[in-house]
Amino acid sequence: MSDAHGLKLLSTLHEDGRLIVELVEETLPAPKGEEVLVRLEAAPINPSDLALLFSSADLANAHYEEGRIVAQMPDGARRALAGRVGQPMVIGNEGAGTVIAAGEAPEAQALLGKRVAVIGGGMFAQYRLIGADACMALHDDATAEQGASAFVNPLTALGFVETMKRGGHKAIVHTAAASNLGQMLVRIAQEDGIPLVNIVRNEAQVAILESLGADHIIDSSKGDFPARLQSAIAATGATLAFDAIGGGAMISQILHAMEQVASKDEPYSRYGSNRPKQAYIYGALDMSPTILTRSFGFAWNIGGWLLFPFLQSAGSETIERMRRRVRDNLTTTFASHYKARISLAEALNRDAVLEYNARRTGEKYLIVPN
């Protein structure tokens, strides 16, 4: 096969604080060894993609032209992102498409002509040259749209469950629970019999989870949120939380409720209960500082949770088991729903940018590159 020619999206931060996001042409060589060339047909816009694509650039006052955006990065963010200055960054953690060429290695040849889900960055493009091990062959009746979100959200939700089991916990508290990921976690919890406390931010999100038959749905905007959170933790025994919000006092409120449940009817201790409490921040829907009000004793930990470090520690057997479950349940447990589908060029239109970068819970967008 001759070289493939296509478009890809790049995001570059310059020394003067300008962020330039643009479509550029690229030429990809024929694959060699275990490489495959994928013609991409669908790629979701995940929050982690937006963090790399735009960060906190001023998009409302940016200059928009066909195939290009020039926005100004705030001084504080520019200093924090100094390490990426001058480096064109490819965007798009995952996607799906068809393998149109393959290297000579057996694992690459086995994928030739197949529709695959792909992970590994650079998926906001028309073509992707990548190793066969980054691909997951989909069932023959699966569409690219169904396979496009087969990695990040499904494996994150399953990773939460694996983390729960490793840590000896028996229930989970999850924030931003009406998101696509949150809905997957609800279905997994129902299938696996895992108690789950779902925290959302408005009545519309409550309705989404009620339609799935979720238990313990709590609206954080209501005045009775602290009391209802404590009751749900008491009912489930949750000592583990995954927080997509990041900023503000949510983590502190969750740990406080866990401590109130753990210390109830126990002898007083100035150090609090001995029951371990673990909270992981895995998102940044709120970019403000994380506020901790130390009302939850000393038996607690807060850390960050990211999918790829988790997978590196999980082992090949666990990863293959997780992948197999996702592949076999793409249209049920791990189904994703999209608010809109846009082309690569449309992804740089002002109205579209301001819409999908708003990061509203449950409003996922899909890029259709070709």
Query: What percent of residues are in strands?
Result: 25-35%
Structural class: alpha/beta
Number of E-state strands: 20
Poorly predicted ranges: none
**Main pleated-sheet profile:** 7 strands, mixed
The portion of residues assigned to helices is 25-40%
- End-to-end C-alpha gap: 19 Å
How confident is the prediction overall: mean pLDDT? 95
Helix count from the secondary structure assignment: 12
Radius of gyration: 22 Å
Net shape: globular
Helix and strand layout, with pairings?
Elements: E1 4-13, E2 18-28, E3 35-45, H1 47-53, E4 58-65, E5 68-72, H2 75-80, E6 89-90, E7 94-102, H3 106-109, E8 115-119, E9 127-131, E10 135-137, H4 144-148, H5 152-166, E11 172-174, H6 180-192, E12 196-200, H7 203-211, E13 217-219, H8 225-236, E14 240-243, E15 246-248, H9 250-263, E16 277-281, E17 286-290, E18 300-304, H10 307-314, H11 316-328, E19 340-342, H12 350-356, E20 365-367
Parallel strand pairs: 11-12, 11-14, 12-13, 14-16, 15-17, 16-18, 19-20
Antiparallel strand pairs: 1-2, 1-6, 2-5, 3-7, 3-9, 3-20, 4-5, 7-8, 8-10
Helix pairs in contact: 5-6, 8-9
Name its key features:
single chain; 370 residues; alpha/beta; seven-stranded mixed beta sheet; six-stranded parallel beta sheet; 12 helices; 29% strand; globular
How is this structure best described in words?
The model has no long low-confidence stretch (mean pLDDT 95). Helix 5 packs across helix 6 and helix 8 packs across helix 9. The chain is globular, with a radius of gyration of 22 Å. Strands 3, 7, 8, 9, 10, 19 and 20 form a seven-stranded mixed sheet that branches. It is built from twelve helices and 20 strands. With 370 residues, the protein is α/β, with parallel strands linked by helices. Helices cover 31% and strands 29% of the residues. Strand 1 and strand 2 form a beta hairpin.
